[in-house]
Specification:
This protein is of the alpha/beta class and 542 residues long. 35% of the residues lie in helices and 23% in strands. The protein binds glutamine.
Length: 542
Amino acid sequence: MARYVFITGGVVSSLGKGIASAALGSLLQARGYKVRLRKLDPYLNVDPGTMSPYQHGECFVTDDGAETDLDLGHYERFTGRPANRQDNITSGRIYSDIITRERRGDFLGGTVQVIPHVTDAIKEFIIAGNDDFDFVLVEIGGTVGDIEALPFFEAIRQLGNEFSPGAAVYIHLTLMPYIPSAGELKTKPTQHSVKELRSIGIQPDILLVRADRDIPESERKKLSLFCNVRPSAVIQALDVASIYDVPIAYHREGFDEEVLKAFFIQDAPQPDLSRWQDISRRVNNPEGEVTIAVVGKYTEMKDAYKSLIEALVHGGIANNVRVKIDWIGSETFEKEDPAPFLEHVHGILVPGGFGMRGTEGMIAAAGYARRRNIPYFGICFGMQMAVIEATRNLAGVAGAGSTEFGPCDEPVVGLLTEWVKGNELHRREEGGDLGGTMRLGSYTARLTPGSRIAEIYGATEIQERHRHRYEVNISYRQRLEDKGLCFAGLSPDGVLPETVELTNHPWFVGVQYHPELKSRPFEPHPLFRSFIAAAMVQSRLV
Ligand code: GLN
């Protein structure tokens, strides 16, 4: 049977619970274990697909088309295992299923309650489909004490009681703040957080304590005493330069060793951390630097671009350079000339986005990159905006636009109403639900042999993850190809443009999908590898 590690957070949010979980997963994996990571989110949305990036950050899309929490991106990047729909659940989804069953009469006249119905549904979710794994790491979103998270805490408490002894371990991630006037790191917030956890019946086995400096032995002892945790199980989690230093840093503090100890595992193989050492060395010792301008809509909210930022880092790892990102709110270019912002950069990237605000600025950025021969990478919305720019300014169709912004005379980007998935035809209904109705998940694209994109992938058939409601209108193809913007990648039925590229430009590629979701530190995505290589040429590094 799989062993379960439950990871909860205390004191404050944003302590890096997702990365800590992912790092632990990678450390257990480095010892040869099969690991799965799952995330339980207490909010009432059915999934984060309808939430604003300002609220929730990036929406991570899995191969099977689920819109999930961004922590699943960390899990994938750290373990290499593709996540799926069953790796993330929310209170919203649990309640929605229970209420549907209640309406069907499945509860046969019984009263439907949080305990046992909601907690049972959570427990079923946690334990389902884990036969092939040695360890299942389950992260609970939010912090202990959140009202909406209570059923999740109750469910993991019950599971610990139901499993055979030694089958579940509880890790609590907290913070020791440094108080300058006292010159000390303080244990009290952690003590209170553990008290809160124990009041709902959970005694943590391990405390992972974030701090900005070494935790003195005396304070560790204090935490051990007051929180009822072995002294060696108080693990300090100090800040590190890169998230890819985390597995090695936590291993050095004995984190994975303590987890194994808590499971009474004595004969665990030593971890092979060579791949992490290699990544860490590359990230921390770049041979140069390139600057990429990311011109987007949510640039004040970096979490909205989590996977994108990491994929750019991976592109840097592949080329042994540091990638510096200049964040530019696209609305800037609706008022100001892009030149002072862009003339020093080595590449311009317009990422995914929704809605009209700032789009003329993205179009201006794409035009600038096209005319000035600066490497341009348009992702999803960024491809659509580049196509609008080329339709207006290369093909001379002045009124070109997207129906996403209202009725349009020249809809070079239009609403996607029908598409094929496997052997099935998917149709969008006018006025239908917004949640879960985009073209989501992995789809095949065919690439024209000899095109730049086929050369970059070294393949003519690819699978990439999608999340879009609009599409480039294939009927403009000829007019654009005549001017050098080639539709080099198409859906297998030849109807949906998947990639475009400018033939007479050093590097100008637009893709309708999200390549950043599949990039990993050990396997940088070919498009990011190639884009950063082009930026190096632009910067005259090579
Ligand atoms: N808003 C665009 C669409 O729905 C682009 C989406 C995106 O960038 N993910 O097609």
